[in-house]
Queue: 3 jobs
Job 1
Amino acid sequence: MELILWRHAHAEPGFPDLARELSTRGREEAKGAAQWLNERLPTPYRILVSPARRTQQTAAILARPYETVPALAPNSNVEALLAAIDWPNEKGVTLVVGHQPTLGEVATCLLGEPRWSPKTASLCWLKAIAPSEKTSATLCRTQATLVAVFTP
């Protein structure tokens, strides 16, 4: 399984939190990240998106079908996200459009590296290590290797 974590683009402040929309800057950030993804996203893939308006708008700029997953909402956690995406069992590539700090915590947990704190619209692409390739203790069910990082 490959996992791409995409933090939503810059959003306007406001309330309620789930209704916050992308700012002008955010739309430009999302366009840059979407272009990068569209040039590289292999098939098969699936795109799972938080129900927050800003993540929906970020994903829509990619112009590909996606599924809204309530478990990816703000204030989710590593365990809920990994369960929602069926890590590491799902085949192909799963793109998650979500929120900080959860995305950073997932990347940190799977890589076993110092904390990743993505800027808005940043991407982190991970690949699960096959069980026979593991050389140390398992973190978060399965470890991963870093494929790429993109910041618009």
Job 2
Amino acid sequence: MKKYLILVLIVTFLIWLLYHSTNGYLVPGYHTFFYTKSDYKSFLEEINEKKEKYKAEYKEADSKEKKEIIEKVQELFLENTEEIFAYWYGTSYDLNGTSQTPGEGKIACGYFVTTVIRDAGFGIDRVRMAQMASEEAIKKLVDDKKIKRFHKVKNVEFVKAARKEGEGLYVVGLDTHIGFLLIKGKEAFFIHSTSTIPHCVIREEAENSPTLRHSKYKVLGKLSEDESFLIKWLD
């Protein structure tokens, strides 16, 4: 009875840790009990259903209505990608990793970015784009007007400049790395598949990210406000 009680307490603590810790996805069972492979498949099907709905509406809409639909698509894109991130957190990193299933196998930084974008509903060449230099990949995704470049800028200043661009989702290209920057309210997170500890897909405060801090060159492309990018989602 005592052993059973201890086990229950341990499980309860792990569940509490999972929902209250920034790195809760490192708790054993994250992909077994919470963000599972079957749930991910169902979620992607939901994304596709919503896309088809908006696609049909967009075709029949006038210019004013199309603008309103794009605004809804922008909100949906942010919601979808945040949920997709949650499934991928904790998935192991490897320089040659090409996993397409959260929690299984390993995934490199470029493949993480392109897989998330593909699974969010965009028709891209996941493999080819993952193998590009980070700046070239961003240029394929984002209109040049939505791209900013920083050279030898302190990370705090970089994040400050990104905040001035407003809330939303960005792709960040570094010297030898690529990931996402999510700015939401007062929070700014760098989401990427990291080669450093804990060697997996993580979410960390952008200001304190060693990976961002050590890169001399940074390219910032805003996905969530690029109208041409969002229209492609409907195509």
Job 3
Amino acid sequence: MSNRKDMARMEATDSPPADYFKFLGTGGARFVVAKQLRASGGIFLHFLGKKMILDPGPGALVRLVRSRPPLDPTSLEAIFLTHKHIDHSNDVNILVEAMTSGGFKKRGVLFAPEECLESQEGVVFNYLKDYLERIEVLTAEKEYRLGELKIRTSVPHLHGAETYGLKIYLPAATVGFLTDTKFFPGLIKAYHDVTLLVMNVVRAKSREADNILHLTAGEAAEIIRGIKPEKAYLTHFGMTMLRADPRKEAEKLAEATGVEVIAAYDGLTVQV
């Protein structure tokens, strides 16, 4: 489902598809998040019966419970952190509390780079770690399992923190989540096998002496052209993308690449 009409129909029937994901927020970068010009709740995943959340930034808990239909945070089975930055990890601790019923139920899996867990700036409270069934430390290009669900990390991203994207393998598609990074050609090879690509595109254009470690729309075009997924979704917008209008940027990318490109919005639900 890729438009507001389809989403409204799904909400009205209260019967989400078997495999889907939902954008709890599409905001990225400090000013958009601080002002909540777009929400920053991450992405809810429902794959092979598993309920999970990816990069629960500020407001993830509220976005879950206020979703239509509501998404119960106590029913989560896994939390994924791609890196430690606050717009990706702010609500991780409260969601560990919810997932484990405050520690009364030892359950759930946390997938995160070691830097999120053990560094001086680790973002997961130590007392919560024992609440979890297990913790999976993410490293580069490694396969992980959650029941029957197969997950694989990307190459390390260039982002000033230990950062990995994810690929999730489903019967109908391989879904890639290309998180924050500076562009480098190895991204195309790392995500070459995805059929549905979700990309964090913070910026509309680059600048001179550019050292900002986020993708631009032009770089997104190069990646999409190289991978040729069946569909690509843009998310995690900064101020320049909002000013440029993500929908217009998506239309330009679709024309330039020959791939259907969709600008995500808060609450968009995508059937896989």
